Amino acid sequence: MIWIGALVLGVILGVLGIHWLDRLMEFVATVYTRLFQLLAVPTIVLAVITTFATFGSKGSGKIFGRTLIYTFLTTVAAAAVGALLYVVVAPSSLPEGSTMAVEAPSGAVGGTSYYEHILSVIPNNIIKPLLEGNVLSLLLIAFAVGIGLSKLPESENKAVVVKGLSGLQDLLFVLIRGLIWTLPLGIVAFSAQLSAQVSAGVVAGSIGKYVAVVLGGNVIQFFVVLPLFLLARGMNPIHVLGRMMPAVLMALFTKSSAATLPVTMQSAEKRLGVRKDIARFVLPVCTTINMNGCAAFILVTSLFVMQNGGTPITLSTILLWILISVVSAIGNAGVPMGCFFLTLSLMSGIGAPVAILGIILPIYTIIDMVETAENVWSDSCVCAMVDHDLR
């Protein structure tokens, strides 16, 4: 109720349109996003290392295997729903001259090939991935360190290292709980920021059918497809969603599944009752590879951009881009606008008219909020199903 009250207050403050207040809310929202991002990277690394070190030799392969299976199935389902809606709704091409030039953001990789991208993930020192927040490289290091610790014979040295890492993780969770305690202030700022953007006309003149396909696909995946996965495993979707609601709401406002990870882990362990060794292994992995909303966005946006560039949208094209969107979404950074950067890079790589993305950019805030909430909800479902299967 406090969170909902903070949401309502933020909307009211944003609608007032007071310039200095809008700037203050933007500052507070940025501070909270940065703080959660600060805690997200060490949370991921320590969670994977400690889980492998203490549980790696006793079935982590089974946990990882089930996580990969559920991630793949839910991501393919999200892309397929987006493709089906695209065919049914059939967004029309934009009129000539309606696009604006879009400069490639500094985070985009342009024409980088998958070969180069894979090489960039392989770390050549320990410090650089930590400084850059390269989650995939850090995961590789964490996997290696965790597995190495699990294979070490029991000794005093191993016990000291494992206890030290566990102590750091406990300290991190104390900081996370403190940040969550002050979170209503952050929610006021997040909702005020969004409300100010809407009232200022940022989302005015949206490209209706395209937006309907993207948001409709996310809504169907959120309320229909993922609950069906839970029901198939004999679980109550309403119960799971109710327990994970703090994480879903946090994702909605931060637009970052990585920044939301501390809240997701806290909710899974304390509210849903997922075993710690499962939650602290599955959720960091899912935050990196389980991107349902991103896969749907990449597919629908790529088809829309290619269509406006004169590419005929055939069944073979759709099937090919379902595969590309699923592969691309896996490993996408769980940060705000990560999917936008990735889609821009893909379209630049094939010579599609990326200026179309200039139309999408003003309304991407809304899309990013919804798809991030779906990503975290999907992470929660995968975690709950893995925990259910292994009990």
Please explain how this structure is put together.
This protein has 391 residues and is mostly helical. The protein has 17 helices and no strands. It starts with a helix and ends with a helix. The relative contact order is 0.18. Residues 97-112 and 202-206 have low confidence and may be disordered.
Question: Major sheet: size, sense and barrel closure?
Answer: none
How many runs of DSSP E, i.e. beta strands?
0
> Percent helix among the residues?
over 70%
Terminal residue distance = 33 Å
Mean pLDDT: 81
- The backbone outline, from C-alpha atoms, is globular
Oligomer: single chain
Q: What ranges have pLDDT less than 50 throughout 5 or more consecutive residues?
A: 97-112, 202-206
What percent of residues are in strands? under 5%
Radius of gyration over all CA atoms, rounded: 21 Å
Number of helices: 17
- SSE pattern, N- to C-terminal: HHHHHHHHHHHHHHHHH
Q: Helix/strand-derived class?
A: mainly alpha
